């Protein structure tokens, strides 16, 4: 498939996905939603059939898919600029997708399992709450500080995680997650169980709390949050894809697939694991900071073990190893129960069953990774 | 003095509960190299099965506490043995050849599914349920200490179960087969051991153990709730890991150690006893940094 | 030709007019007005959330069954899961939806705090039915936010005065580490200390804690007369049971969080006997409106009881519907009208909103468990002296 047709396929895929998302968000009745879902599943199955499969694969693996996809979301946000609730949902999906992107780097690339995703998300949020007070520090710096704080605190866990394998490492992150939440709740210095309120976010002079007034376009303030989330997610994708496609990514793959062999080949296993873990936590913390501003409030009971499990479900569903699958999975996990209200009560049960089904029958996830290919002048 | 003794007794009871869960984890890991993260939730389902059995028996007119207790235990153990075998067959065995992390995730999700199923479908499941007191409640006060007969019975039962499991594993043919598979699956198969049967038996045994632990938990606290398995599972897992996965003695040691940490944390930090979990888990993390394979660690070597 | 056409047309028109005149009065339907209900319908507090939702639903049903009502009301129930992000999400949903004109909101104080800005931004008038943190109405000047239940300050002041009058001097406090428990701990300590009460120990426990032996063993060594518990029913049940097992003979005093049937069911009637608890509002069971509420609630066969704050949800919904009937389904007019609420009658007593929209509740009711039921203190045999409280 030539490069050009791959880009074209990615463009078509983005447009279709954005249109579908628009219809989905606007759907009111359960009947419409069910109809849309049925169509979606039918299309997904049709894409696996012979004539369309190569096109779908090309679109799914094209480098142009993430940027086109994000542009599609921007267009969507501008179209929906008066629908506050839909914008809120879109913003949340993007923010959670960014957080899971960090986890994806840790797990899908380096094989380091992190069951404390919600805790790092929370660290970013609390940093934003504490530093953002008084408006002395510029908003962009506060967001970055959220990421840095998560990365720094995460480094405390590095020693235990490095020295352990597989399940032992998992235990360490589980213990940390529980510890984090309990500590915050019991302790009053960071607001205790009542949490903290966040001041408004102002990035480069643009106040995100004010309604949108962009020339002839007027809309809800949430459009700005969606745009901010798109920018951050774009940066996150750029970082992750760059890493994956570089020699760093190659090293991470080697470490994940077989640590002993990688060590035998002279790769410094510890160094690459630390890198993946730290950068991953940075992304999750960054997402947490923006999310805290979006919600306007932060409290410890938002960052429990169940939330970490949801993050893990998202990366499992999205395809371990395919970064583009993460936003798709995040959208499914967050939007579906919202639209199918009947499902609300049963959603944890459904997530669990869905992930189990994926693990049993399609362990690669919805958009599985392709094996790394090296061709002359070519895309991996 | 009396207070200190009371603390020791509290810690011991707690430790016994945790040890029972940890032994299950070690058993599964030893045989199949899998972490059955749904173990805590199987415990919970077992407790609820016992509760349902009690309701049924009471409805049928049985009043003798001894009979009710027997019925509850039998129902819980049997139903969970079947559930454990089902889990092994449907979920664990098919995933034998994939990276172990997938199995961990699978069982984690299974645990969530079990928890939600009870919360949604058991009548009144979202609220904690009263568990009947079927043990004699006589208590004697010795100074500031209160000695209770039911606690003593529970402790003794727990100890008997652990000893019984150990004897089973070391003394019977099936136990021998389990140990053989744990050591080297391929050779065991070559020796004619039915691998599938051994796995199913191990899971059945471990789950039955969890069910009894669940009933004991219910008797001790007079209460069961759909969420009781999650924290117990995490603590049991931590205890097993800290003690050394795959090692029965390690599991027991880990269980009592964790209980001791929690009790010390609660007692030593008087106005901040809520920090006891923070303290206990913090110590676990530190221990993992220095003894990554646990206190009575397995000497593992890998063929590359 | 023309005449026949026009005759035909005229008769057709007449017939149509006749038919329409006959049909139209019955065909005029009442406009549907939507009000939102927000509370924790899943998670640890779901019992209270569902009780609140059922109570609000009852209010709406009763109103719709009333032929004199001007509108057909529809309750939109939303789940805030007791978490700020979910709470802000559903608050945005309700507030941004123009067809929803008012809201009966929140039991969890954390969520109520988080959503205040959202309601203000979109101008949705809300009446809080269960969150007790004072800041929810007092930390800002938003005219949209009101509350019908009291804050925990009143509750604890009355409790302190009562217990001191009973002659108690020493307490050990157990409270959960949520804002509910911590708030109660703070305000009770503040109220009892000037009255001569001594706090021998203060223990924070997590909201899902199972084992209290460590804390209770320490408390045993402190020999308090009363154990004060700030938290919800599940923990209260465990604490009472474990107190018994350790042989602690103190009096147990609780808050509205444990004032539920489930406490008596969970601890068992013998252990629950003599336990004290307090709640804002006049005793629902004794007021005529209250009895009416209990009867109608039972008649609907809801799977969950109304719990301690159900009556407040009922009151909030009724208040909003009354206001809508008076000024129409217009958010601004509703806000203006709610500001004028003074001495409005309700099943929990008269409601008066102060300048911050807070109901200045005068009455706090004291309850004690007697023979497996929560009984108003003044009616109990403890008050008359026939039975004695513990710990003295």
How would you sum up this structure, described in words?
The complex is a heterotrimer of chains A (380), B (304) and C (392). Chain A has 380 residues and is mainly alpha-helical. Chain A is built from 16 helices and six strands. Chain A has one domain. Helix content of chain A is 69%, strand content 4%. In chain A, a hairpin with a 2-residue loop joins strand 2 and strand 3. In chain A, helix 6 crosses helix 7, helix 6 packs across helix 13 and helix 10 packs across helix 11. The C terminus of chain A is likely disordered. Chain B is mainly alpha-helical and 304 residues long. A two-stranded antiparallel sheet of chain B has the order 1-4. A two-stranded antiparallel sheet of chain B has the order 2-3. The longest helix of chain B is centred in the first third of the chain and has 31 residues. Chain C is α/β, with parallel strands linked by helices. Chain C has a seven-stranded mixed beta sheet with strand order 7-6-8-9-10-11-12. In chain C, strands 2-1-3-4-5 form a five-stranded parallel beta sheet. Chain C is globular and about 65 Å long. Chains in contact: A-B, A-C, B-C. At the A-B interface, helix 8, helix 9, helix 12, helix 14 and helix 16 of A face helix 4, helix 9 and helix 11 of B.
Kindly list the characteristics that best describe this protein.
heterotrimer; A: 380 residues; mainly alpha; two-stranded antiparallel ribbon; two-stranded antiparallel sheet; 16 helices; 6 strands; disordered C terminus; C: 392 residues; alpha/beta; Rossmann fold; 2 domains; 7-stranded mixed sheet; 5-stranded parallel sheet; 14 helices
How would you concisely characterize the structure shown here?
With 380 residues, chain A is mainly alpha-helical.
Question: Which strand order spans the largest sheet of chain C, edge to edge or round the barrel?
Answer: 7-6-8-9-10-11-12
Number of strands of chain B: 4
* CATH topology description of the largest domain in chain C: Rossmann fold
Radius of gyration of chain B: 19 Å
Q: How many structural units, i.e. domains of chain B?
A: 1
Oligomer: heterotrimer
Number of strands of chain C: 12
Number of domain modules of chain C: 2
Helix share bin of chain C: 40-55%
Main sheet overview of chain C: 7 strands, mixed
N→C terminal distance of chain B: 56 Å
Average pLDDT for all residues of chain B: 84
Order of helices and strands of chain C: HEHEHEHEHEHEHEHEHEHHEHHHEE
Instruction: Choose one word for the global shape of chain B.
Output: globular
User: What composes the largest sheet of chain B?
Assistant: 2 strands, antiparallel
Low-confidence stretches of chain C: 17-27
* CATH homologous superfamily grouping of the largest domain in chain C: Response regulator
Counting DSSP H or I runs of 4 or more residues, the number of helices of chain C is 14
Give me the secondary-structure category of chain B: mainly alpha
CATH architecture of the largest domain in chain C: 3-Layer(aba) Sandwich
């Amino acid at each position: 498939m030539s490069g050009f047709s791959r880009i074209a396929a990615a463009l078509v895929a983005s447009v279709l996905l954005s249109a579908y998302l628009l219809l989905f968000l606007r759907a009111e009745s359960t009947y419409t939603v069910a109809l849309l879902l049925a169509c979606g599943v039918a299309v997904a199955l049709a894409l696996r059939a012979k004539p369309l499969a190569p096109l779908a694969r090309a679109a799914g693996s094209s480098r142009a898919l993430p940027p086109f996809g994000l542009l599609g979301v921007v267009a969507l946000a501008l179209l929906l600029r008066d629908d506050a609730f839909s914008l809120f949902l879109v913003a949340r999906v993007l923010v959670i997708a960014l957080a899971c992107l960090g986890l994806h780097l840790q797990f899908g690339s380096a094989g380091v399992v992190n069951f404390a995703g919600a805790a790092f998300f929370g660290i970013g949020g609390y940093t934003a709450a504490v530093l953002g007070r008084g408006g002395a520090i510029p908003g962009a710096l506060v967001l970055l500080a959220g990421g840095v704080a998560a990365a720094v605190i995460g480094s405390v866990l590095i020693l235990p995680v490095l020295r352990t394998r597989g399940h032992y490492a998992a235990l360490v992150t589980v213990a940390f997650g529980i510890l984090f939440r309990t500590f915050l709740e019991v302790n009053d210095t960071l607001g205790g169980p009542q949490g903290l309120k966040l001041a408004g976010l102002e990035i480069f002079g643009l106040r995100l709390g004010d309604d949108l007034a962009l020339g002839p376009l007027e809309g809800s303030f949430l459009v700005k949050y969606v745009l901010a989330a798109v920018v951050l997610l774009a940066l996150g994708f750029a970082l992750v894809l760059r890493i994956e496609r570089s020699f760093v990514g190659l090293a991470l793959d080697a470490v994940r697939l077989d640590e002993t062999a990688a060590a035998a080949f002279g790769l410094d296993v510890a160094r690459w694991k630390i890198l993946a873990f730290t950068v991953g936590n940075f992304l999750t913390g960054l997402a947490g900071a923006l999310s805290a501003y979006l919600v306007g409030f932060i409290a410890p009971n938002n960052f429990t073990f169940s939330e970490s499990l949801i993050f893990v479900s998202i990366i499992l569903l999205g395809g371990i190893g395919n970064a583009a699958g993460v936003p798709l999975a995040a959208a499914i996990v967050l939007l579906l129960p919202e639209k199918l209200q009947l499902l609300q009560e049963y959603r944890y049960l459904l997530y669990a069953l869905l992930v189990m089904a994926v693990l049993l029958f399609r362990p690669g996830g919805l958009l599985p990774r392709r094996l790394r290919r090296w061709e002359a002048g070519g895309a991996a | 003095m009396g207070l200190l003794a009371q603390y020791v007794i509290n810690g011991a009871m707690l430790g016994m509960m945790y040890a029972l869960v940890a032994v299950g984890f070690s058993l599964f890991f030893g045989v199949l190299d899998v972490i059955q993260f749904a173990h805590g939730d199987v415990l919970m389902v077992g407790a609820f099965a016992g509760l349902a059995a009690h309701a049924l028996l009471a409805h049928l007119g049985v009043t003798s506490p001894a009979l009710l207790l027997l019925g509850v235990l039998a129902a819980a153990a049997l139903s969970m043995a079947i559930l454990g075998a089902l889990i092994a067959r449907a979920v664990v065995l098919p995933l034998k050849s994939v990276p172990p992390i997938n199995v961990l995730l699978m069982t984690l999700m299974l645990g969530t599914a079990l928890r939600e199923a009870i919360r949604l479908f058991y009548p009144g499941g979202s609220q904690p349920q009263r568990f009947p007191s079927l043990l004699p409640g006589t208590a004697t006060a010795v100074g500031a200490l209160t000695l209770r007969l039911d606690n003593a019975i529970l402790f003794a039962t727990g100890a008997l179960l652990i000893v019984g499991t150990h004897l089973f594993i070391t003394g019977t043919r099936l136990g021998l087969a389990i140990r053989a598979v744990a050591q080297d699956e391929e050779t065991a198969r070559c020796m004619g051991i039915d691998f599938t049967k051994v796995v199913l038996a191990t899971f059945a045994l471990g789950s039955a153990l969890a069910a009894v632990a669940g009933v004991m938990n219910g008797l001790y606290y007079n209460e069961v709730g759909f969420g009781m398995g999650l924290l117990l599972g995490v603590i049991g897992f931590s205890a097993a890991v800290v003690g050394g996965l795959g090692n029965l003695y390690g599991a027991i040691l880990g269980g009592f150690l964790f209980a001791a940490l929690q009790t010390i944390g609660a007692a030593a930090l008087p106005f901040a006893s809520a920090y006891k979990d923070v303290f206990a888990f913090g110590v676990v993390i530190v221990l993992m940094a220095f003894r990554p394979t646990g206190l009575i660690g397995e000497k593992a070597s890998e063929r590359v | 030709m023309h005449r026949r056409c026009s005759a035909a047309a005229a008769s057709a028109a007449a017939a149509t007019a006749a038919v329409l005149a006959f049909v139209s009065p019955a065909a005029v339907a009442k406009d549907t007005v939507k009000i939102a209900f927000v509370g924790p319908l899943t998670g640890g507090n779901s019992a209270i959330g569902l009780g609140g939702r059922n109570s609000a639903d009852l209010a709406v049903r009763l109103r719709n069954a009333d032929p004199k009502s001007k509108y057909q009301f529809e309750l939109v129930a939303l789940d805030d899961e007791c978490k700020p992000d979910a709470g802000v999400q559903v608050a945005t949903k309700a507030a941004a939806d123009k067809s929803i004109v008012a809201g009966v909101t929140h039991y969890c104080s954390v969520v109520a705090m988080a959503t205040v800005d959202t309601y203000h931004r979109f101008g949705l008038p809300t009446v809080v039915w269960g969150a007790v943190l004072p800041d929810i109405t007092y930390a800002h000047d938003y005219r949209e936010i009101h509350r019908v239940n009291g804050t925990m300050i009143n509750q604890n002041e009355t409790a302190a005065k009562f217990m001191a009058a009973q002659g108690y001097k020493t307490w050990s406090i157990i409270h959960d580490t949520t804002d509910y428990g911590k708030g109660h701990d703070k305000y009770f300590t503040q109220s009892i200390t000037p009255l001569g009460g001594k706090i021998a120990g203060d223990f924070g426990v997590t909201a899902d804690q199972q084992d209290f032996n460590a804390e209770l063993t320490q408390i045993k060594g402190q020999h308090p007369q009363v154990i004060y518990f700030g938290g919800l029913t599940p923990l209260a049940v465990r604490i009472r049971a474990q107190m018994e097992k350790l042989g602690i003979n103190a009096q147990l005093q609780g808050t509205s969080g444990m004032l539920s049937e489930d406490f008596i069911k969970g601890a068992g009637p013998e252990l629950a006997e003599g336990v004290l608890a307090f709640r804002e509002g006049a005793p629902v069971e004794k007021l005529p409106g209250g009895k009416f509420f209990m009867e109608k609630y039972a008649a609907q066969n809801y799977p969950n009881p109304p719990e301690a704050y159900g009556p407040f949800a009922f009151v909030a919904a009724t208040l909003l519907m009354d206001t809508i009937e008076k000024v129409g389904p217009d958010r601004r007019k509703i806000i203006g009208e709610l500001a004028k609420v003074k001495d409005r009658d309700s099943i929990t007593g008269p409601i008066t909103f102060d300048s911050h929209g807070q109901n200045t509740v005068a009455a706090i009711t004291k309850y004690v468990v007697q023979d497996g039921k929560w009984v108003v203190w003044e009616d109990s045999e403890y008050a008359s002296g026939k039975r004695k409280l513990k710990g003295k």
